[in-house]
Amino acid sequence: MTTMIPTLNDVKLASTDFPVHPLIQRRWSPRAFADRLVEPEKLLSLLEAARWAPSSGNGQPWHFFLGVRGTPAHAVLVDVLKEGNASWAAQAPVLMLTVAKMTTGSGRPHTHALYDVGLAVMNLTLQATALDLYVHQMGGFYADRARQRFAIPEGFEPVTAIAIGYLGDPEMLDEKNRERERSPRSRRPLSEFVFEGRWGEPAQIVSKAQPQS
């Protein structure tokens, strides 16, 4: 009998308690990216998906700095990453920086701008998964350096850095990141964050539900 060896994607497939869309189940954030460029038409599809994200008052506060490997913008994006991310993200064929417009059209503080940028990036991420691309979002970057290098004006806030590409071989990573790459994903149970009535009391729909076997 032939024994099937689990692939990296098998290991990373989300073990959900209840059914979710396969795109959500398959999505994960690698650090090893293949030495393969992302086709321009696929990259445009990702950006178009972000464009059609919902936003408060249709304000669309998201902005993206885009750097394709081999361009000056990619080198700048590597430079603004913190060292722990730059060590692997420099190999990604596409890097981005997301920026939020922190005021509304009338000049008032935009209290949902960061949330809306997150929605746009989630749209981008799911579109990437549908195209067999992978996205790794990073909070580890130097915001002040990014602001200076990209001449980001007042009223706009750098939010996250993003690496995009095809899945690569974990062997290209250092030992610590190889172990992360090969470890199964996990999440807190719904009972820890879905409440009803009082803080910390799980909602009845959660407490009564039986997870799928």
Tell me about this structure.
The protein is of the alpha+beta class. It has a domain at 29-169: NADH Oxidase. It is 35% helix and 17% strand. It contains 9 helices and 6 strands; from the N terminus they run αααβααβαβαβαββα. It has helices at residues 8-12, 22-26, 40-51, 72-80, 83-89, 113-130, 143-149, 175-182, 204-207, and strands at residues 62-68, 94-101, 134-138, 156-165, 195-196, 198-202. The strands form 2 sheets. A 4-stranded antiparallel β-sheet has the order 1-2-4-3, sandwiched between helices. Strands 5-6 form a two-stranded antiparallel sheet. A hairpin with a 1-residue loop joins β5 and β6 (198-202). α3 runs antiparallel to α6. The chain is globular, with a radius of gyration of 19 Å. The two termini are 26 Å apart. The mean pLDDT is 95.
End-to-end Cα distance, whole Å, is 26 Å
User: What is the gyration radius calculated from CA atoms?
Assistant: 19 Å
Unreliable residue runs: none
Instruction: Briefly note the structural class of the backbone.
Output: alpha+beta
Helix content: 25-40%
Q: Strand-and-helix sequence, N→C? A: HHHEHHEHEHEHEEH
**CATH homologous superfamily of the domain at 29-169 - what is it?**
NADH Oxidase
Summary, kept brief:
With 213 residues, this protein is an alpha+beta fold.
Map the helices and strands:
Layout: H1 8-12, H2 22-26, H3 40-51, E1 62-68, H4 72-80, H5 83-89, E2 94-101, H6 113-130, E3 134-138, H7 143-149, E4 156-165, H8 175-182, E5 195-196, E6 198-202, H9 204-207
Helix pairs in contact: 3-6
